[in-house]
Design a protein that fits this description.
This protein has eleven helices and seven strands. It has 287 residues and is an alpha/beta fold. It has a single domain, classed as Vaccinia Virus protein VP39 (Rossmann fold, 3-Layer(aba) Sandwich), CATH 3.40.50.150. Strands 3-2-1-4-5-7-6 form a seven-stranded mixed sheet, with helices on both faces. Helix 1 packs across helix 3. The longest helix has 30 residues, at 56-85. The chain starts with 12 loop residues before the first helix and ends with a strand. The relative contact order is 0.14. The mean pLDDT is 92. Bound molecules: S-adenosylmethionine. S-adenosylmethionine binds at residues 11-12, 14-15, 18, 95-99, 117-118, 121, 144-146, 169-171, 174. Residues 11-12, 14-15, 18, 95-99, 117-118, 121, 144-146, 169-171, 174 line the site of S-adenosylmethionine.
Length: 287
């Protein structure tokens, strides 16, 4: 605790980073979603932790990523709505962070939703959410996604015999390729026919971009230095092929098309038209 605020350090602090951008998006008149709880997380984290992402290099990075997180959130909101329309009544959010879809989206009656993340992130989240009612049956599971999380999921009532809508958002970049592979193996083994999978695929290559290198050398103690140490994934295989190798049939929407569809600028950090930018892929897949 610092100044009465719970500390979210290292990779846990990235959950707050995304929460800050969702709070900002929710204040826009042309917002792509409304996450009223995001501001509560930001307030609970307190000024010192907010400052990591809202001052100096952190501010530049947050501004550069804001439109991207808004588009990504809306893309996977729509994915869940479609998976439910197709009959799914079980959802799993891996590395849920401060995701509030359980409280924001209109889930069909009888939907069970599981959220997995690190214990300190979930402790913080549950404290802030005290008294809030989810719009589905919600189960929260503290787990390391590099370890045996499927047995924890089973203990909490996950059913392997019904289709599941999985979400892998904002996590692959933190896992070395071997752990990412194992994660997908485990998801696949637990997926009944008719299951769905939403995946955000970003690799470490982003910290090798011109923009990131410039930021890191301008301020070695800053955000880019921290992210550079946290980002592990170096997978070079196209993500749709990676999913196909595990038995999933994937569709991808380019960030440019997604941005155009929602009348947003292409996020500068990932704009293929700009030299030296990173690449990100958003995919949905069926099995
Ligand atoms: C960038 S945040 C994304 C959170 C959420 N998916 C979202 O989009 O808001 C990354 C999350 O991954 C979680 N995480 C990273 N490594 C993990 C691991 N090995 N096991 C469980 N969670 C992990 C962090 O705690 C953090 O909440």
């Amino acid at each position: 605790m610092t100044d009465g605020h719970e500390r979210l350090a290292g990779v846990s602090s990235t959950a707050l980073f995304v929460g800050i951008t969702r709070a900002d998006e929710s204040r826009r008149p042309d917002r792509l979603f409304e996450d009223t709880l995001a501001t509560r997380f930001v307030d609970a984290a307190g000024p010192e932790q907010q400052a990591v992402w809202t001052e100096g290099q952190g501010k530049l990075f947050t501004e550069a990523m804001g439109d991207y997180f808004a588009l990504r959130t809306r893309y996977f909101d729509d994915y869940f709505i479609q998976a439910c329309a197709a009959g799914c009544r079980q959802a799993v959010l891996l590395a849920a962070g401060l995701d509030t879809r359980a409280f924001r989206l209109h889930w069909p009656d009888g939907t069970r939703l599981f959220e997995l993340d690190q214990p300190n992130v979930l402790d913080f989240k549950e404290r802030v959410l005290q008294g809030e009612e989810p719009r589905c049956e919600r189960e929260v599971i503290a787990a390391d996604l590099r370890e045996d999380w499927p047995s924890l999921l089973a203990k909490q009532g996950f059913r392997e015999d019904v289709p599941t809508a999985w979400l892998v958002e904002g996590i692959l970049v933190y896992l070395p390729e071997r752990d990412a592979d194992r994660l997908l193996d485990r998801i696949t083994a637990l997926s009944a026919p008719g299951s769905h999978l939403g995946v955000e695929h970003v690799t470490r290559s982003m910290v090798n971009t011109d923009q990131a290198r410039e930021a890191a050398s301008a301020s070695p103690e800053g955000i880019m230095g921290m992210l550079s140490s946290l980002w592990k994934n170096e997978m070079t295989q196209p993500p749709a092929n990676w999913l196909a190798d595990h038995g999933w049939s994937a569709a991808e929407e380019s960030l440019t098309d997604l941005a155009e569809r929602h009348a947003r600028p292409v996020p500068p950090a990932f704009d293929p038209a700009l030299p030296g930018t990173g690449r990100v892929r958003l995919l949905t897949a069926d099995r």
